Amino acid sequence: MTRQSLANHESRITNHVIYPPSLTQLIEALRCLPGVGPKSAQRMAFYLLERDRLGAKRLADSIAQADARVGSCKRCRMFAESELCPICAATKRERGLLCVVESPADVVAVEQSGSYRGCYFVLMGHLSPLDGIGPEQLGLPELDALFQQGEVQEVKATTAAVQKSIDYNTEVTARAASSAAIARDAAQKAHETLVRLVEKNDSE
Amino acid sequence: MTRQSLANHESRITNHVIYPPSLTQLIEALRCLPGVGPKSAQRMAFYLLERDRLGAKRLADSIAQADARVGSCKRCRMFAESELCPICAATKRERGLLCVVESPADVVAVEQSGSYRGCYFVLMGHLSPLDGIGPEQLGLPELDALFQQGEVQEVKATTAAVQKSIDYNTEVTARAASSAAIARDAAQKAHETLVRLVEKNDSE
User: Which residue ranges does chain A devote to CATH 3.40.1360.10?
Assistant: First the structure.
């Protein structure tokens, strides 16, 4: 045990003796949030208990409620409270046009351009094998299945990372020859599409 | 409305249409955490719902449990699940010696030195009128009351900010003449004490 890790270890022991058990547990639980280390977690716990009990109650309820209600749209994987998200459920959308994006926030960004009338497929991240995020976690098998159904005529990818994910998948699943062709098309159109949308949005 | 605030406003409207209501509510609720802006809150909400449902459940339970169980020690204001914290309840502690600290984390830091056998008073912050943190929020009236009881013989302050808070309070409450004298004493001893404790801790 190094001097530093010994100090950390001792600090944990002292914390456990001095802080009440439910405070120690709250600090540990807050560390599940991305970007929150032991010091931030401690600061957050102190703040909630000392300065914002109402906010704490609201946060606990909101997490529980979102956990109970929010699932994924079965077509596009967007967060949704029903089987289909509002966009996939809308009759006016072009179902032959599919925009593949990394995150739900990208859907909001493209929607704000106001010029896209197709549907989406949300990867919910990008390939990151070290974090355990492979093709399955990104829903690439479902994307393949969507291609196989034949409804999708044109694919747009919004970022290089999305394009890479699709390329990787098509290499791995050589059997999906038709989807590979569509995906490679998408790769060519990817940057053009995004640049166009962003330019249009900026100029308005 | 500036171009930027208009864009923010439009973004919120689009979010509300595209995200399910309980996700929007979760993003808003996460913003009560210190240092968490709209983008971090969104990233945290996505992460909890997409990658760590178990962590989300645990977090919701931990917040609710800590909110229900954790109060303040009635003598020193430290977080505690019973009327007195373990330190104030301990019979072996010198009750005539009081160390005034900003945060519960300072109690842990001083305890780790292993050389302090007195009690504490936790301000839970420092004077910050712009954030609505004045003498009452720091428990300075309770600190005065503790001085008036006559049990406290010696006061140590751990930081310049703590010393400033005590000074400010003694200025405002001119009536508490005896506590002012004790507090001014404390101000002189403050840095020496902390430096000694930290040096001792480092050399071990």
Answer: 79-177
Contact B105 A42 (CB under 8 A): yes
Range among A147-156, B86-95, B123-132 with highest mean pLDDT value? B86-95
> Which of A40, A60, A78 minimises the CB distance to B63?
A60
Across the beta sheet with A154-157, the strand order is A118-122, A94-101, A154-157
Cα–Cα distances in angstroms (integers) from residue A197 to residues A124, A157, A191, in the given order: 21, 12, 10
CB contact under 8 A, A46 and B11: no
Residue B190 to chain A, least CA–CA distance (Å): 23
A49: nearest CA partner in chain B: B67
What's the CATH architecture for B3-69? Answer: Orthogonal Bundle (1.10)
- Tell me the percentage of chain B whose pLDDT exceeds 70: 69
Residues of chain A with CATH 1.10.8.420: 3-69
Among the partner residues B18, B32, B48, nearest to A55 by beta-carbon distance? B32
Mutate which: A33, A69, A131, A198, vs B, most B CBs within 10 A:
A33
Let me know if domain B79-177 sits in CATH 3.40.1360.10.
Answer: yes
* Residues counted in chain B: 204
Name the residue facing A20 among B33, B60, B79 (closest C-beta): B79
Q: What is the 3-state secondary structure (H, E, C) of chain A?
A: CCHHHHHHHHHHHHHHHHCCHHHHHHHHHHCCCCCCCHHHHHHHHHHHHHHCHHHHHHHHHHHHHHHHHCEECCCCCCEECCCCCHHHHCCCCEEEEEEEECCHHHHHHHHHHCCCCEEEEECCCCCEHHHCECCCCCCHHHHHHHHHCCCCCEEEECCHHHHHHHHHHHHHCCCCHHHHHHHHHHHHHHHHHHHHHHHHHHHC
Supply the pLDDT for residue B111: 87
In A, minimum Cα distance to B55 occurs at A32
If one compares B115 and A34, the residue with the highest pLDDT of the two is A34
Indicate yes or no: CB of A81 within 8 angstroms of CB of B21: yes
Residues of B in contact with A51 (CB under 8 A): 125
